[in-house]
Amino acid sequence: MKIIIIGSVAAGTSVAAKARRNDENAEITLYNADYDISYSICGIPYFLGGEVDEVDTLTPRSAPWFKVRYNVDIHTRHEVTSIDPEKKTVTVKDLGTNEIKEDNYDTLVFATGASPTTPAITGVDQDHVFHVRTIQHAIAIDKYLNAKKPKKATIIGAGFIGLEMAEQLSHKGLEVTIIQRGNQIMPHLDKDMAIRVEEHLRKQNVTLLLNEEAASISEKTVETKNGNVIDSDIVFLATGVKPNTSLAEDIGVELGSCGAIKVNNRMQTSLPDIYAVGDVAESFSIVTGKSIYRPLGSTANKMGRIAGDVITGGDLEHRGILGTGILRVFDLAVGYTGLSEKEAVAEGYDVEVLHNIKPSRADYLGGKELVIKAIADRETSRILGVQIVGQDGVDKRLDVFVTAISFKAKAEDLFHLDLAYAPPFSTTKDPVMYTGMALQNAIDKKNKLITPQEIIDRIDSGEALQIIDTRATKQYEAAHVDGAINIPLAKLREEAKGLDTNIPTVTYCNKGVTGNAAQNVLINMGFKEVFNLSGGNKNYQSFTKGR
């Protein structure tokens, strides 16, 4: 059997490695138009910022290494220019010599990845404007930084690469401005979580321009469509990527709804003996079952292993993804998995939303605050998605949620998890467990939750609400929810007698615990509808500040 793989970064090399482990006799050839193979795209910002000393660290594998280790032939700077699926041949151009040759295959794998998008901006082709996608990009940027010593950088786009570059360039002493076309950074986050990261960026002296689009780039400035002129010595394009599907389209391979190659759970395309893996292929959501495109190295490696197994007679199948992502933004870790609130609502779910603010471990051992936003389906209690922002313990909790959602856990299941506890690592009731407990209580209708946005919407619609701040008077006077009255919890049983039990009532404290206690008091006193403000006043103030 002869296998030809087009592309040799994460997915392509994973196909080759797994196929060789299964079959010692298969002939495996990879063609790659780039100079480098099997490299870490995600590590590039950290090389440019100096956390990674040598660029070679990001390219631990070479073509000769693969030949010795796996008996796989990798040809860099060789571009596959056309494919004949009837004859099962590919035409290959050596980009160094311009020599053209034809090669044949029994099985073909598209691992052609994705390319960075280039926005339609005047001046985008200048020497000080860079993409951040390949090792060659990294080398060129590093050379420019060292030679030109730029002082001011503009980043167009506020996704993973844009935010990571903002952090790393700031560490190098550059003044950084981010231009983002939408009204928030990180579009896979809900706005009420994104604003926390936006606030942190500004505290780190990163200038953040939302609802802006770059219109033109000159040698020393970037001008936006709204007329803002930003001094800039170097510009980075971080506006996303597009799957490299042109070769596949030329031979009639079907694309999916996301614009990437459509594959089944064995990574097979619409044409026989042709597979697609990695950033060129779409996946599907574990939650909804629908197509999803989230180009990440982790997913690419997984897809590659599955295809390599299937091609050589194995029975691995792709089980879908949750679209999990995590990144560091200065002192914050930001993670998400599954559906956001806006995505869940768009999918037709009746959602329950909780903002849980808890320390990552015992306060007396330096626990740092975590903000967990969890979304569940009211009908089934199934956890649909989670977003977390915090300085410590984000990855640990996120991976627990990923596991739980993957196995279709309900909110109540989270409370019953026997998670590791000791004061240096967690709290007695871990934030994951507390999230499940509070969500289930809300779903059961005993302890209803209300988000800051819902309060604002209900007030704007003219609905009467009784809003009770249960904190100490000094805390209330410092900052409180609009329209709230102050009744500390210790006085609530007596003063609540003067309130109308028929009017929908909201209780809150700083983060939610005392508000929940007040909610129980009022429910037991016969109040017909009582909500606890999700995340308390702290969440409300953060939300309203960032609107």
TrEMBL record:
The GO molecular function terms of this record are:
oxidoreductase activity
Query: Which keywords does this chain's UniProt record carry?
Result: FAD, Flavoprotein, Oxidoreductase, Redox-active center
Q: Do you know which Pfam families this protein is assigned to?
A: Pyr_redox_2, Pyr_redox_dim, Rhodanese
What SUPFAM superfamilies does the record tag this protein with? FAD/NAD(P)-binding domain, FAD/NAD-linked reductases, dimerisation (C-terminal) domain, Rhodanese/Cell cycle control phosphatase
Co-factor(s): FAD
Q: Specify the Rhodanese domain's residue ranges.
A: 461-545
Q: Which domain of life is it from?
A: Bacteria
InterPro entries, A to Z = FAD-bd_OxRdtase (IPR050260), FAD/NAD-bd_sf (IPR036188), FAD/NAD-binding_dom (IPR023753), FAD/NAD-linked_Rdtase_dimer_sf (IPR016156), Pyr_nucl-diS_OxRdtase_dimer (IPR004099), Rhodanese-like_dom (IPR001763), Rhodanese-like_dom_sf (IPR036873)
Regarding protein family, the annotation reads:
Belongs to the class-III pyridine nucleotide-disulfide oxidoreductase family.
PANTHER family registered for this protein in UniProt: NAD(P)H SULFUR OXIDOREDUCTASE (COA-DEPENDENT), PYRIDINE NUCLEOTIDE-DISULFIDE OXIDOREDUCTASE DOMAIN-CONTAINING
Name of this protein: Rhodanese domain-containing protein
